[in-house]
Amino acid sequence: MKLKSFFKLVLCIIVCELAGAIGAIFSVSAIPNWYAALNKPALNPPSWVFGPVWTTLYALMGIAVFLIWKKGFDRPDVKKAIKVFGLQVVLNALWSIVFFGLHSPGWAFVNIAAMWLAVIWTMELFRRISKPAMWLLAPYILWISFAAYLNFSIWILN
Predict the structure, then answer these.
(1) Structure-derived torsion over alpha carbons of residues 143, 148, 151, 155, reported in degrees to the nearest 10
(2) Domain, as residue range, for 82
């Protein structure tokens, strides 16, 4: 891998991990206080699981968007795919703000539903450019689906 490509890969991963850092700012203080007091569904994993899972998913997202960028940002399909990818990353970061920062599981569920649709759209656009990039997002959409179940259940239970 050329040095320029390596730096692009690192940049993509860092940008995606920053979405997680934004989420962490809002969730770290809310988890032991507000979140701990909520009623949760039976399938709710322990809190320590979320950090490693999200860190891994953000890295996979970074690799995926790098594979798309590598195809040439001058291509209209690549530009569109990266813009839609950016939209779902923004929705991802907003979810933590809405859920943990605003303590609003209902609005967070609306956000995660929009994020789910944006990820599906991203995967379809990525599929047309790079199937490996699309498949790198498969664990992400599965986790978001599970997170949507958790979010909805917490909203209903509380």
Answers:
(1) -170
(2) 3-157
DSSP H helices, the chain, are: 3-27, 50-69, 76-96, 105-129, 131-136, 138-157
For 149, residues 6+ apart whose C-beta sits below 8 A from its C-beta are 41, 43
Number of domains making up the chain: 1
Total count of residues recorded for the chain: 158
CATH number of the domain that 7 lies in? 1.20.1260.100
- Show pLDDT as tens, one digit a residue, over the chain (158 residues): 788 899 999 999 999 999 999 988 988 889 889 999 999 999 999 989 999 999 999 999 999 999 999 999 999 999 999 999 999 999 999 999 999 999 999 999 999 999 999 999 999 999 999 999 999 999 999 999 999 999 999 999 99
Contact assessment for residue 84 and residue 129, using Cβ atoms and an 8 Å cutoff = no
